[in-house]
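To fix ideas, we reproduce below a protein record of this kind.
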Amino acid sequence: MADFIARLIEHVTVVISTPLKWVPEDAPEEMKRQVVSEITSEVHAELHALAESRLFHERVKAWSIAYSHRGTGSTRERARDIEAIYEQAAPIPGEMADPRASEFVASVLKVAQAAVERKGGMFE
């Protein structure tokens, strides 16, 4: 889960740290870095909660099934089941429209938007 969250926060940080505009426009660089850091910290904490919910709480039964495999070939079956869990919980958007991926991206954006707005910013 740590790697999953690390990749998410990397991408969200790029969006947060490169806003379309700053108000005031001549804000000092130190202030900009501080605001980005505060927002990123909030997003990081909330993404942990989102990931925990999507990967574990919503899929307890699937994890139990994945780790119930025994005997010859169980490693491959377990790996296949775990990959399916990740694909369902955090689908990677691709070229084709995918409602699950769109819903996941919307969840991540909602987290980022809420953090920006709590710090007095606007997310468009």
Notes: DSSP finds five helices and no strands in the chain.
